[in-house]
Design goal:
alpha+beta, Small Protein B, Chain: A, 7-stranded antiparallel β-sheet, SsrA-bd_prot_CS, RNA binding, SsrA-binding protein, SmpB, SsrA-bd_prot
Length: about 160
């Protein structure tokens, strides 16, 4: 059977849509994420938000901070804390490289999306990014508006 959009193992659980507007994305990485059972069940419900979250280095490990995964309602007393820091699983060489880029070059680690891969494992798409200033954001908005206008004119000409 072909895997399509309805496949439960290949779905996006949370997406940071403003990240590409607020940051210049240099590189993206795929990282595993350490979750408890109730967090996985809650993620499959699709109510998580990563809009205000970021990743940071602590004690030689990369942690996802401020990501909101709501409590799983059916778990009663075995539930998790919604905004707890979660460890990201990366190779040691990647951790060292990312930590060095954040410290030396002033870059930021921004999660772009949390999704489930083909094997059903939760993954985080992490971007090494640099923040945009107001002028860059204005330029991005102008380009987006122009592209939309150009597409509308091309449709009318047919």
């Amino acid at each position: 059977m072909a895997k399509g959009r309805d496949d439960p193992h290949n779905t996006i659980a949370a997406e940071n849509r403003k990240a590409r507007f607020n940051y210049h994305i240099n590189e993206t990485f795929e990282a595993g994420i350490m979750l408890t059972g109730t967090e996985v069940k809650s993620l499959r419900g699709g109510k998580a938000t990563i809009g205000e979250s970021y990743a940071g280095e602590k004690n030689g490990e990369i942690w996802l901070v401020n990501a909101y995964i709501p409590e799983y309602l059916e778990a009663n007393r075995f539930n998790h804390t919604p905004k707890r820091p979660r460890k990201l699983l990366l190779h040691k060489r990647q951790v060292n490289r990312l930590a060095a880029a954040v410290q030396r070059e002033g870059m930021t680690l921004v999660p772009l999306k949390i999704y489930f891969n083909e094997k059903g494992r939760a993954k985080v798409e992490l971007a090494l990014a640099k923040g945009k200033n107001v002028a860059d954001k204005r330029e991005t908005e102008k380009k987006r508006d122009w592209d939309r206008e150009r597409a509308r004119v091309m449709r009318e000409k047919g």
